């Protein structure tokens, strides 16, 4: 039997004529201009570009964390332009995971509790069991009771990655996930991220300046001064 053609299905993330402009003392600054993209379920996409090219701004818009100045975004079949902040948060809950450069772990919670929290918020009956499972997948079962300040940078990012995948999200957005790590630790984090993503069959969209990380993605989109300069297979 011939497998279905994924291009026959609507993309899980899409942007049309997307622009972001902000007022400054010197006038209006165009951060993004007329961006077009579509990402199919199960794809891995790297967004690359120099510092200030608009990479993180684009990621935040695609995830519904910010609103664009112009253009349209569809996330998981919903037009984000028509949703207020609370509705966008409800859409993301349990369906979208995040990995940040600065880890964004809650300092008062243990490693296990940081993974447990989104599962409890999603109302998962098996929340504690799943949190322990994903912490172990991140190789940190022995560090369950440690708070973020008791963990190395690489260990904190492992917790953050486990947290992102714990709710079985359809999409994971990652913003410079190796940006605060040394080369060796970053390489191990890349391996973990793609290992978990492959097993979960999640759509992965990441921002990076790291060619080694970008090369692991199926497709690469390169930004120059807020515009797509290149979109090709990585």
How would you briefly describe this protein structure?
The chain has 234 residues and is α/β, with parallel strands linked by helices. It has seven helices and ten strands.
Q: How would you sum up this structure, described in words?
A:
This protein has 234 residues and is of the alpha/beta class. Helix content is 32%, strand content 29%. The chain is built from 7 helices and 10 strands. The strands form 2 sheets. It has a 6-stranded mixed sheet with strand order 6-7-8-3-9-10.
Order of helices and strands: EEEHEEHEHHHEHEHEE
Strand content: 25-35%
Q: Largest sheet, described in full?
A: 6 strands, mixed
User: What structural category arises from helix and sheet content?
Assistant: alpha/beta
Please count the beta strands (DSSP E, at least 2 residues each).
Answer: 10
- Note poorly predicted spans: 1-6
Strand order of the largest sheet: 6-7-8-3-9-10
Please give a handful of descriptors for the protein shown.
234 residues; alpha/beta; 6-stranded mixed beta sheet; 4-stranded antiparallel beta sheet; 7 helices; 32% helix; disordered N terminus
Task: Give me the secondary-structure topology.
Blueprint lengths: L12 E12 L2 E13 L4 E6 L5 H8 L7 E6 L2 E2 L5 H8 L3 E5 L10 H11 L5 H11 L15 H14 L4 E5 L7 H18 L2 E5 L3 H4 L4 E6 L2 E7 L1
Parallel strand pairs: 3-8, 3-9, 6-7, 7-8
Antiparallel strand pairs: 1-2, 1-4, 4-5, 9-10
Helix pairs in contact: 3-4, 3-5, 4-5, 5-6
